[in-house]
């Protein structure tokens, strides 16, 4: 049992690894141990001593906490200036990659994934951010059946002039290759809402939804040339609203 500030927790198992940290499943207790619950805890790797990465970890906490939304994993407790920086957040039961690998999604759940991504990512964009790492393993299914976006480790402001961290500067290509917008491979291009939309479209494509109208929308999200893609998620929602038999998120 570990004690931090005014709570105690017990690590049950490691459930994920990232570039500069890892995620554990924990049981969290109050100090008198009369109440407890299961949560996820993300920890910055102890060997990560560079101030640069500690600042990025702090930014991850601040941005994810700022984006309050039903389709974004909430952070409940954060200890970012301690010797072992970490934060505690909602625990999911599956990530979308697991569900896709096991062909475990019902048709209604596929539409729920689309709704969650559209609304969650729209909220992130509306707050002035680009997520930069939209992929199935960062979409979490919670025990109530809702899907939520997580892992804000690569998040950046839409306006690059407001960024001070060199890891977020133009020229640093980060993210997962399969979901990386094609234009980011060429010098002079930068992340944008459109690069997030490309990644989202690639996820939608993996859902194998057969609705013809939605297929056209998904293809437009995934256009190789960013000028042919949607400008914003609002535009996507308008096109979905116009489809027969499909409700916009």
TrEMBL record:
Q: PROSITE patterns, from UniProt?
A: PROTEIN_KINASE_ATP, PROTEIN_KINASE_DOM, PROTEIN_KINASE_ST
Record flagged with keyword Nucleotide-binding: yes
Residues bound to ATP: 42
- Family matches, as InterPro entries: Kinase-like_dom_sf, Prot_kinase_dom, Protein_kinase_ATP_BS, Ser/Thr_kinase_AS
Q: What is the superkingdom listed in this entry's lineage?
A: Bacteria
Q: Which GO terms describe its molecular function?
A: ATP binding; protein serine/threonine kinase activity
Protein kinase domain location is 9-249
**Matching CDD domains:** STKc_PknB_like (cd14014)
Record-linked SUPFAM superfamilies: Protein kinase-like (PK-like) (SSF56112)
User: Keywords on this record?
Assistant: ATP-binding, Kinase, Nucleotide-binding, Serine/threonine-protein kinase, Transferase
Q: What is this protein called?
A: Serine/threonine protein kinase
Specify the species: Photobacterium damselae subsp. damselae
């Amino acid at each position: 049992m570990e004690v931090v500030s005014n709570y105690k927790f017990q690590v049950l198992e490691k459930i994920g690894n990232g570039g500069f940290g890892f995620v554990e499943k924990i049981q969290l207790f109050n100090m008198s141990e009369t109440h407890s619950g299961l949560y996820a805890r993300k920890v910055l790797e102890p060997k990560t001593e560079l101030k640069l990465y500690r600042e990025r970890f702090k930014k991850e906490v601040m941005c994810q906490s700022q984006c309050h939304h039903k389709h974004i994993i909430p952070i409940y407790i954060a200890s970012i200036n301690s010797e072992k920086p970490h934060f505690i957040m909602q625990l999911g039961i599956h990530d979308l990659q697991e569900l896709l690998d096991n062909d475990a999604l019902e048709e209604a759940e596929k539409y729920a994934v689309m709704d969650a991504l559209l609304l969650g990512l729209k909220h992130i964009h509306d707050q002035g951010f680009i997520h930069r790492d939209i992929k199935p393993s960062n979409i979490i299914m919670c025990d109530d059946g809702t899907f939520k976006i997580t892992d804000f480790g690569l998040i950046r402001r839409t306006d690059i002039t407001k960024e001070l961290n060199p890891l977020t500067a133009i020229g640093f290509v980060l993210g997962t290759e399969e979901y990386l917008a094609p234009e980011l491979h060429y010098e002079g291009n930068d992340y944008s809402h459109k690069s997030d939309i490309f990644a989202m479209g690639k996820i939608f494509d993996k859902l194998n939804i057969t609705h013809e109208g939605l297929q056209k929308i998904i293809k437009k999200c995934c256009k190789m040339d960013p000028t042919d893609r949607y400008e914003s998620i609002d535009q996507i929602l308008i096109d979905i609203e116009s489809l027969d038999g499909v409700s916009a998120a």
